[in-house]
Amino acid sequence: MNKKWVNRISGLYLGDQVQMHNGVASGINQKHAATQLTVQFDRVVGNSEADPKHHGGLDRVLHHFPREHYGQYRRWDLMSSFKDAPSMGENISTVGVNESLVNIGDIVQIGDVTLQVTQPRSPCFKLNVQFEQPKFALAMQESRMCGWFYRVLSEGVIRPSDSICLIERKTDISIAKAMQIYFLPEFDAEQYQTLLACDGLAQSWVESLQRRLAKQSIEDWAMRLYGKAS
To answer: Which residues 6+ apart lie within 8 Å of 6 measured at CB?
Structure first.
């Protein structure tokens, strides 16, 4: 399989500064346009995360977010002012590929870099702060317009002129479907097992699903979505 997703990248972004915003440490507003991304197995050179426990690691080296989603969020009046890439903290911005077209485990080629799709973005309360909307994270969770993360299979350089090609499909579970399953409002062991069987799924999601199955219950999402316990 060699299917071109995107002919040309809309934007590349990175940043390594952390800023306090309404008492929350975040690097989301410190991303800036880059002429290229130098991609290593564990990081993008010049890029860092304020919260490496939940953002970053080997399964989340690069964040890809569809640029056209900004327009939809604006139409839903979920942004207090005009926002565009890289306001989601993304590294890669494109038009033409979305969560319904990208599957867990997909292996893609961008320039001389080979990547694997590992998980959707799990929206958190920092997005509420970023866009001054108390339910932005919940809206992203429910709409599944979240972007996705990559692990690095081969290092190299990504440039804006590079195309993005799907070179191997490992599973039939899209990013949108993975979001639907993971954030089901009620416990569903069968659906969790379906997602767990996906080749390439991020280890943090694997462990989270295994904990649910062991406890036969879903964790409380209030802290992640709103920054406070329910």
So the answer is: 94, 95, 96, 97, 163, 164
Tell me how far apart the terminal alpha carbons of the chain are, to the nearest angstrom.
Answer: 46
Give this prediction's pTM. Answer: 0.94
**pLDDT at residue 190, rounded to an integer:** 98
Nearest to residue 182, comparing CAs of 153, 140, 223, 150?
140
Torsion angles phi and psi, residue 24, rounded to 5 = -115, 125
β pairing state of 92-94 and 11-14 = antiparallel
**Residues contacting 102, CB < 8 A, separation 6+:** 5, 117, 148, 174, 175
Statement: residue 2 has pLDDT above 80: yes
CA-angle at 11, arms to 8 and 17, nearest 5°: 155
Q: Radius of gyration (Cα) for the chain, nearest Å? A: 17
Q: What are the structure tokens assigned to 100, written together? A: 């319904």
What per-residue confidence (pLDDT) applies to 80?
78
Q: How confident is the model at residue 70 (pLDDT cuts 50, 70, 90)?
A: very high
